[in-house]
């Protein structure tokens, strides 16, 4: 095509040279790419002779008295992106132009991370901007997300942080990493998302199951991590962040570089390295809590307006040491730990990562192709591959100490496609299909019975989402999705366990082989799940906004909820799944009302979630083994109800002083047992005061107070027989720790370093007063205090 | 039309993906190498008499069944017994002797004996390379006739040396079993 223009240019040059054909007229029509509607008042500039004309009401234009030859024509319209096209004029001719008016799709040189579009129109949704993500560069994804109201986390120490949305976590929270649904064994409480936070350009959180395009089982919500858009022109840019962290005596470095070549070609590379030693509580070292993380991503492709493709590969590996004192032998050890008030093992500071520890590696590869059809919409096709390998090392006897107790390899292939009709101004339709195959391989070399069995899983999903702009003020949306899941597992059960669970009555036909004390069984379960959403977004003339949404979601039980069986050494508990578990069904109603005044604004977001067959894991009793008594944690199903509300407000006191306020509360109830639900975050409030003076090198300083109330609504504790004490003892396994208050300080300045180069320095101090505290949602609260003061120094270079 | 074509293509590709045949080879069964199923405490009276064995056996390991505890007979009053402990993993054939592992790593292990009733004393008869007690062998002296209990606990990675109590020693419990005894 280009060659052709080039050749014809040469062919036409001599003609232009004669100067006798300056009588040509160029006419045509400018229309919208999607809807084909004519665009009025579009400006056409013929570069060279610099003749400028506008289109009339019908979108028609006419440029007369031009010489034959080759030109560039610039076409612009206030609501559209400007295009420059090459044309060859040879006599009178017609030339129609289509313009793209969807501004959010513009591939301009934009400020990174500012073009995030909402994933839904009516559900509760919040974004984390790049600026905020960067302040958590040395932390984890879960830490950063806690900035958002209604988002908390379930922690295992400071390094394993699982996001929890409106009180729900694990398999109920989907994480999309650049369009790929993470498949990284999200079922375990101590399995953190395998994501390098530094690879994200922006993060959106949909609090609920309304974003059906990503999956129908997001009863908690969906976390969407996106990449910054890459400009189409020929440019190169990058950034490097260096963090020093006092608590852990280490830091991290992350760097990225993007090169775009024009015409949509680009390549981008990013890498991070993080290393911390033992963390410290105010009074002691938290022995064996170091971490090492390496992340790298490379991607490239061609993004043009009408079509494009890209390919991406990312690698993430983390080695996380688990608090030594949290590795215990039996219930007496647990009682002792709870009563002691401080960890049993406190050793001098070290960078060594010893057992117990986890070593997890995640590979992700993705290929995506898209094409736009004029007057119709955009079609996407994506294939992604993920491989997750997890080793968990326990403190073991003898030569086995170097052998992992858990060695799982999860491989997932997903093919998905969707089409979005966005040609019409008033309504849009988005439909899609997804097919997935997953295989789990637990390596028998561990010498420990498998906690998660060998299985193959097949998923198929289909969805349709529509939105309709009823009036200038009201936008309605609705969606429907169907998912089919099949899990085909092969598992050994101890005969005694098989009978204790009553499976010999219900599932005797699953037995493939009876080996005496053990049984090989082959459960194959199918689940059919429906999810749906309906909602609206009402813009009042006063500027206020009301969103309301109902979401129905169903989630099939995960492998852990079905098959867990045995002693989880790192948690010193026997975990028992149940083959009878069925899909959960959630009905969630949410609303959001927000209004901005001249100097202040607020948002109020109440929600209610009723979940039938809610699967929960909670302590139920003890089992005796030769090693003593162990608490038994059983998965069971119940009907649950969650009520909650997030409230936020800001006040601009002057152009320098600003305050932010946030309050979240959620109440969870087990309706069958008429008791509180386990692991529901306590009410908390965050208030910050910010002072900024842009003239002083963009100086900013903020002081934040975080107050976490005591969780008073917890399930009852259990009574266990202590062999050591030879009597029944109340095991305070559900008692929540006291309320706590933390202060944090953050300050930052920017220094320009010549053209397009900036150095940003920031200093943050977390837990400023070195307060002793324990958090209810930290699984290590039985053993040790949470982190003490932490000073973070960050240098950021943009170039 | 074009769209429909593309969509049907995608469905086709999806079904090819889904129909990948599964290999139904049975997974390899895992024998837990670390499990201790059986602890046998043998008490041989100093100077002759009936040997008494105390045994705790839990063949399903971490399974739901509680260990079976047996005591072969009554102890004689005011007698010193030479005690020894044998740990076995009977899920393997032949049964694996775990005592050997404990003996090899004696600096990381220690048995603790907590008694009530008419047992006069329990003293260690062995020590590790650092001169700290281990407890694979020990001496037990009974008191007058009556009832007694002895709890035998094996700790992995206890604090060594310690004051002989479980609370001070810390570490993780590998085994713990209480035996009810009668002294005649």
Write up this protein.
The complex is a heterodimer of chains A (799) and B (184). Chain A is mostly beta strands and 799 residues long. Chain A folds into three domains: 2-101, Sandwich (Immunoglobulin-like), CATH 2.60.40.1120; 125-224, Ferric Hydroxamate Uptake Protein, Chain A, domain 1, CATH 2.170.130; 225-798, Beta Barrel (Maltoporin, Chain A). Helix content of chain A is 7%, strand content 55%. Chain A has seven helices and 47 strands. Chain A has a 22-stranded antiparallel beta barrel. A five-stranded mixed β-sheet of chain A has the order 9-15-16-13-14. In chain A, strands 1, 4, 7 and 8 form a four-stranded mixed β-sheet that branches. The two termini of chain A are 35 Å apart. With 184 residues, chain B is an alpha+beta fold. Chain B has a single domain (34-183), classed as Immunoglobulin-like. Helix content of chain B is 15%, strand content 40%. Chain B has helices at 2-18, 98-104, 166-169, and strands spanning 38-45, 52-57, 68-71, 80-89, 96-97, 109-117, 119-124, 137-142, 146-156, 172-183. In chain B, the strands form two sheets. In chain B, strands 1, 2, 3, 4, 5, 7 and 8 form a seven-stranded antiparallel β-sheet that branches. In chain B, strands 6-9-10 form a three-stranded antiparallel β-sheet, with no helix packed on it. The N and C termini of chain B lie far apart (96 Å). Residues 16-22 of chain B have low confidence and may be disordered. At the A-B interface, helix 4, strand 26, strand 27, strand 28 and strand 29 of A face helix 1, helix 2, strand 9 and strand 10 of B.
């Amino acid at each position: 095509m280009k060659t052709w223009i080039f050749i014809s240019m040469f062919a036409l040059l001599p003609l232009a040279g004669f100067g006798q054909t300056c009588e040509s007229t160029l006419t045509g029509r400018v229309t919208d790419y999607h809807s084909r509607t004519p665009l009025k008042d579009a400006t056409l500039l013929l570069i060279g002779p610099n003749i400028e004309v506008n289109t009339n009401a019908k979108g028609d234009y006419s440029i007369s008295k031009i010489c034959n030859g080759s030109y560039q024509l610039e076409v612009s319209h206030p609501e559209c992106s400007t295009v420059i096209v090459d044309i060859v004029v040879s006599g009178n001719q017609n030339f129609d132009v289509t313009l793209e008016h969807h501004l959010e799709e513009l591939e301009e040189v934009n400020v990174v991370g500012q073009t995030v579009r909402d994933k839904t129109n009516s559900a509760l949704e919040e974004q984390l901007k790049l600026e905020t993500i960067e302040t958590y560069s040395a932390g984890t994804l879960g830490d950063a997300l806690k900035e958002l109201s209604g988002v908390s986390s379930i922690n295992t120490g400071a390094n394993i942080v699982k996001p929890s949305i409106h009180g729900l976590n694990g398999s109920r929270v989907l994480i999309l990493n650049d369009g790929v649904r993470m498949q990284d064994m999200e079922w375990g409480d101590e399995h953190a998302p395998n994501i390098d936070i530094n690879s994200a350009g922006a993060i959106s959180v949909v609090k609920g199951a309304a974003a059906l395009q990503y999956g129908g089982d997001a009863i908690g919500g969906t976390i969407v991590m996106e990449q910054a858009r890459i400009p189409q022109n020929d440019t190169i840019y990058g950034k490097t962040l260096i963090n020093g962290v006092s608590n852990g005596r280490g830091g991290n470095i992350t760097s990225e570089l993007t090169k775009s070549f024009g015409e949509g070609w680009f390549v981008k590379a990013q890498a991070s390295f993080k290393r911390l030693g033992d963390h410290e509580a105010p009074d002691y070292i938290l022995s064996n809590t170091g971490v090492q993380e390496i992340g790298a991503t490379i991607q490239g492709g061609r993004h043009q307006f009408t079509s494009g493709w890209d390919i991406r590969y990312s690698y993430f590996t983390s080695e996380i040491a688990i608090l030594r004192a949290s590795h215990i032998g039996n219930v007496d050890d647990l009682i002792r730990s709870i009563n002691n008030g401080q960890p049993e093992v406190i050793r001098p500071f070290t960078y060594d990562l010893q057992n117990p520890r986890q070593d997890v590696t995640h590979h992700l590869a993705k290929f995506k192709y898209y094409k736009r059809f004029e007057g119709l919409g955009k079609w996407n096709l994506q294939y992604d591959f993920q491989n997750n390998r997890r080793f968990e090392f326990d403190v073991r006897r003898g030569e086995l100490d170097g052998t992992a107790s858990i060695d799982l390899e999860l491989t997932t292939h997903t093919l998905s496609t969707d089409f979005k009709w966005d040609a019409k101004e008033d309504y849009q339709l988005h439909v899609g299909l997804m097919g997935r195959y997953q295989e789990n391989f637990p390596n028998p070399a561990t010498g420990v019975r498998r906690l998660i069995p060998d299985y193959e899983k097949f998923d198929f999903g289909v969805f349709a989402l529509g939105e309709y702009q009823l009036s200038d003020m009201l936008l309605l949306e609705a969606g429907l999705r169907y998912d089919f899941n099949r899990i085909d597992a092969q598992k050994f059960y101890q005969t005694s366990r098989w009978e204790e669970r009553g499976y010999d009555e219900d599932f005797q036909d699953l037995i493939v082989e009876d080996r005496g004390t053990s049984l090989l069984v082959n459960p194959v379960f199918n689940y059919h799940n429906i999810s749906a959403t309906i909602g609206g977004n009402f813009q009042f003339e006063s500027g206020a906004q009301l969103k309301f949404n109902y979401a129905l979601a169903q989630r099939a039980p995960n492998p852990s909820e079905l098959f867990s069986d045995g002693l989880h050494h790192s948690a010193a508990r026997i975990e028992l799944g149940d083959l009878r578990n069925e899909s959960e069904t959630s009905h969630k109603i949410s609303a959001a009302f927000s209004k901005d005044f001249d100097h202040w604004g607020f948002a109020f977001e109440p929600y209610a979630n009723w979940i039938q067959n809610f699967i929960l894991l909670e302590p139920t009793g003890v089992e005796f083994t030769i090693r003593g008594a162990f608490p038994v944690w059983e998965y069971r199903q119940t009907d649950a109800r969650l009520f909650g509300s997030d409230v936020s407000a800001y006040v601009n006191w002057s152009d320098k002083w600003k305050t932010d306020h946030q309050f979240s509360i959620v109440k969870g109830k087990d309706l069958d047992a008429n008791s509180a639900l386990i692991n529901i975050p306590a009410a908390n409030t965050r208030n910050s005061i910010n002072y900024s003076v842009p003239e002083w090198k963009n100086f900013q300083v903020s002081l934040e107070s975080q107050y976490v109330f005591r969780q008073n609504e917890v399930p009852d504790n259990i009574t266990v027989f202590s062999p050591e004490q030879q009597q029944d003892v109340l095991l305070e396994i559900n008692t929540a720790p006291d309320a706590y208050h933390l202060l944090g300080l953050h300050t930052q300045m920017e220094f320009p370093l010549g053209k397009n180069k900036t150095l940003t320095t920031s200093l943050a101090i977390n837990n400023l007063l070195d307060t002793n505290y324990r958090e209810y949602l930290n699984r290590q609260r039985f053993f040790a205090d949470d982190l003490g003061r932490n000073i973070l120094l960050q240098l950021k270079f943009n170039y | 039309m074009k769209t429909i074509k593309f969509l049907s293509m995608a469905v086709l590709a999806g079904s090819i993906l889904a129909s990948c045949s599964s290999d139904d080879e049975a997974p390899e069964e895992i024998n837990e190498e670390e499990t201790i199923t059986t602890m046998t405490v043998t008490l041989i009276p100093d100077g002759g008499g009936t040997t008494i064995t105390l045994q705790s056996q839990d063949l399903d390991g971490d399974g739901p069944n509680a260990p079976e505890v047996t005591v072969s007979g009554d102890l004689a009053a005011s007698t010193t017994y030479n005690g020894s402990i044998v740990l076995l993993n009977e899920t393997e054939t032949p049964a694996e002797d775990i005592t050997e592992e404990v003996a090899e790593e004696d600096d990381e292990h220690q048995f603790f004996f907590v008694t009530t009733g008419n047992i006069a004393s329990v003293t260690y008869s062995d020590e590790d390379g650092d001169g700290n007690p281990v407890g694979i062998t020990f001496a037990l002296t009974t008191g007058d006739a009556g009832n007694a209990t002895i709890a035998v606990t094996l700790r992995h990675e206890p604090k060594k040396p310690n004051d002989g109590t479980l609370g001070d020693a810390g570490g993780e419990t590998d085994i713990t079993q209480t035996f009810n005894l009668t002294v005649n």
